[in-house]
Amino acid sequence: MNNASWLIRREFWENRAIWLVPAVIGGLLLLGAVFGHVQFGGELFRPDGPGGGVPSQVSLYALSGVVTSMFLIIMSVYSGWYLLDCLHADRKDRSILFWKSLPISDSETVLVKLLVGLIVIPLVYFAIADFTVLCMAFTLSLRTGYWAASGFWHPSLWLQIQGFWLYSIVTLAIWFLPVAGWLMLISAWATRAVILWSVLPPLAIFIGERWMFGTYYFGRELLDRLGAGYARHAFNLTLGGEGWRTEVLHPEGGDQTLSFPTTLWHLLDPRGFFGSASVWIGVAVGIVLVAAAIQLRSRRAEI
Amino acid sequence: MSPLIEARDLTKRYGRHLALDRVNFSIEAGRIVGLIGPNGAGKTSALRSLLGLTNYEGHLRVLGREPLRERTSLMADACFIADVAVLPGWLRVDQSIDFVAGVHPKFRRDRAQALLEKTAIRGSSRMRELSKGMKTQVHLALTMAIDAKLFVLDEPTLGLDLLARRSFYDALVNDYMDETRTILITTHQVEEVENLLTDLMFIDKGRIVLDCSLEDVAQRYAAVALSGSELEAARGLRPFYERRTLGKTVLYYENPDFARLRDFGEVLTPSVSDLFVAKLAGVTT
Fold it and tell me: Residue B152: which region, alpha, beta or left (left: phi > 0; alpha: psi -120 to 50)?
């Protein structure tokens, strides 16, 4: 445990971008909130506006949803790059010979890097995103007057949002374990062109399968893993029904409606996620890939 | 007492190339051993095997452990500097001390700090900002502050100027070495280590061609400088190498009949450098 905490600290020393990038993004967003032209939800959410007092909780969902998902998208790109680079960079600059001169096992090293890529980096981004949302909500409340403020400051809503994002981070880490394992394996194995090597074999399998059998199973599975599959497994995506509320937006006329969950808990689907074979097959593949990365790490020194 | 390092039929292949070809040696505690050979002779392969950085064939025990399988526990009792340029550029000097202090049970922080205080290096500097000589000092301070039984150095002074080399070896001998420690140094520059070694191992083309303590060199090796008719006679005693110098030919012998050799003239003990040249040239021709 002691080693792990030092290894995590080490990753922060080496990769200052872990917190610098989200800090800069957060800073820019705050600047925008302070000086920018505010047109947040337009007139829709005003109690006296056309929305006719759409429940104010939607404004906080929207703010946190937009800001935090933006952070998480950038995070996933950064985290992918981190995992692809983390077992390669120290072989390239030969500093692996220094790290390996210390009594730290290769499995500790690899597992800590996996933990940083899948959990620590997302948590750092999330913490900064959350802080940014809080500051933006405060700034926007001051600038727009009472109607926004009434929407932003519900402790129970904040709690729901925290729960929602933490659930997302945990499930994302589990869902993307095989992808992370693959990136680390390439990182431990390739002598150069890690990006190319991470892409080529899946592409070759895809083309090979199509050429030999005329089928697309692999490509479909892969796209599902990288794309829509996550949301389908982790969340309850059926709109409406129990726990949902629908409001008519223009009481004076028109039939535009807005549906939103009364609490975010309705969106989470942990039972579906943890009960899905697809999730556990992914975990098994991920474990095999990470174990292979550890094996390679113990046999390879500098490039 | 069993030796600190024991290798039997140690072999390392890269594809079809044999970097180490059934090498046998053992190293006792308290020695300073030089593993000397030209570039590509197999020195680095030998060290990588000893340190658990690569797989190998054959029997190998270092401090009673099997290096590749037990590298983590081995590194608690052994330390190494594999070339001095391996400290990562982004690491700060004070961070490097914190880190090693954090993960190494036998690291003595006060000692590392005392060693660094003698230098002009600041804790806030990053490794990339330091000169090669300064990086060496940092690495040496980090390593010498570890209470290790075995200290392995691979071409430690590569790329250093003469002053930095001198102070490197001075620090090693004066501040570090005592009877509880063992040092293994590889180098292709014989002259800079010959005065500090207690044992010699010459390696060439993946084989050990000489393995001898310095005390034994005088009993095992001899050289005579001769000319004219005596030369022909002395050649009958089977020198393994001869070298022509100003008007004379120097003949080198291994385990010679010293009494008969003395009849030809003064019998000299070859220097390590001479022995190196003689042994390596003798093998290659």
Answer: beta
Residue B193 phi/psi, 5° resolution?
-115, -10
The separation between the first and the last C-alpha atoms of chain A, rounded to the nearest angstrom, is 30
Residues 6+ positions from B130 with CB-CB distance below 8 Å: B93, B121, B138
Q: Binning pLDDT at 50, 70 and 90, where does residue B272 land? A: confident
Nearest to A101 among B54, B73, B80 (CB): B80
Of B71, B86, B91, the CB nearest to A94: B86
pTM above 0.90, yes or no: no
CATH class of B5-205: alpha beta
Chain A residue with minimum CA distance to B90: A14
Residue type, A57: Q
* Pairing label, strands B32-36, B182-187: parallel
- Distance CA(B245)–CA(A231), nearest Å, equals 83
| Residue percentage of chain B with pLDDT more than 70 | 98
Amino acid at B236: G
Is the CB of residue A236 less than 8 Å away from at least one CB of chain B?
Answer: no
Judged by a CB distance cut-off of 8 A, whether residue A90 touches chain B is yes
pLDDT at A135 over 80: yes
pLDDT reading at A43 higher than 70: no
What is the H or E stretch that residue A20 is in? helix A17-35
Q: Which residues of A touch B86 (CB under 8 A)?
A: 93-98, 302
Q: How far is CA A119 from CA A83, B162, B196, B285, in A?
A: 12, 49, 51, 61
Task: Tell me the Cα Rg of chain A.
Answer: 23
Average pLDDT score over residue span B226-236: 82
DSSP A276: -
**Cβ neighbours, 10 Å, residue B257:** 11
Task: Supply B96's token pair.
Answer: 């490097």
Q: Can you tell me the mean pLDDT for A16-43?
A: 83
Domain boundaries, chain B: 5-205, 216-284
Distance, in Å, from the CA atom of A162 to the CA atom of A168, rounded to the nearest integer, reads 10
Which residues of chain A neighbour B112 with C-beta distances below 8 Å? none
Which ipTM was obtained for this model?
0.88
What is residue A251's three-state secondary structure? Answer: coil
Cβ-contact A122, A20 below 8 angstroms: no
Question: Residue B186: which of B48, B3, B22, B12 has the closest Cα?
Answer: B48
Beta bridge partners of B201: B35, B211
**SS3 category, B259:** helix
Q: Smallest Cα–Cα separation from A106: which of B52, B179, B282, B13?
A: B52
